[in-house]
Amino acid sequence: MTAPLLKIEHLEVRYGDLIGVADVSLEVPKGSIVALLGSNGAGKTTTLNAIAGIARVSAGTVEFHGENIAGQPAYAIVRKGLALSPEGWRLFAQQSVENNLMLGATPLADRRRIPRLIDRVYSVFPKLAERRNQRAGTMSGGERQMLAVGRALMSEPELLLLDEPSLGLAPAIVDTMYDSFAALHKDGLTILLAEQSVDLALEAADHAYVLQVGRTVLEGPAKAMLDNPDVQRIYLGIE
Ligand SMILES: Nc1ncnc2c1ncn2[C@@H]1O[C@H](COP(=O)(O)OP(=O)(O)O)[C@@H](O)[C@H]1O
Ligand SMILES: [Mg+2]
What we know:
The chain is globular and about 45 Å long. It has helices spanning about 45-50, 75-80, 95-105, 115-125, 125-130, 140-155, 170-185, 200-205, 220-225, 230-235, and strands spanning about 5-15, 20-30, 35, 60-65, 65-70, 80-85, 160-165, 190-195, 205-210, 215-220. With about 240 residues, the protein is α/β, with parallel strands linked by helices. The longest helix is centred in the C-terminal third of the chain and has 16 residues, at about 170-185. α3 (about 95-105) packs parallel to α6 (about 140-155).
């Protein structure tokens, strides 16, 4: 068996005296879609932010291609081929769609790749092409989510980290978005997907991990998790 693309062991992240995540371990094989599930406050965002170098790792390892990247700055991590589409999008509201995409290409060493990458984002999300000159802050939630993903794609990642891409969006928009994720995956992209929406994530994923108060408490093939009563129990916090 080949080594996983991403391997996290005993990750701990502290926010001062508070614990963001206490003990998270997971693996993301190359070419897979892995779901990171858990209710609000379980530690999904903290885990993704720690992988991306936005939250400081206080213990444990984050290996990408076998190299421990924990503690490296965010710009160095994105250059290695990991990109995050953050919860809440974090776009430049006053800037155009295209400028926001260009900002995602900042880490690229080879600037000549930008036109091709922009075209790829526009073919995955045609809505963004229509809106390329519009200010990001005037777009709908669904369009902003697409832009956040598009911006992440501009650094040409091998692993895309998606933080709650369905949050607050209408079901029809969510379906379109997940179709785009499936197309990107088919094209070779590996995806780690944090979602509160269990059914949605398990339909898309190959494998899933469930977090509860900052710890990995369950894992398994996504299809088996769909039928696992423990998943719903942990999720709903039913004892
Ligand atoms: N900036 C922060 N400062 C202090 N505590 C935080 C911060 N961000 C998250 N937390 C805490 O860390 C824990 C995990 O939160 P989070 O990673 O956002 O969970 P999720 O994304 O699963 O909802 C929660 O207890 C939350 O209150
Ligand atoms: Mg979150």
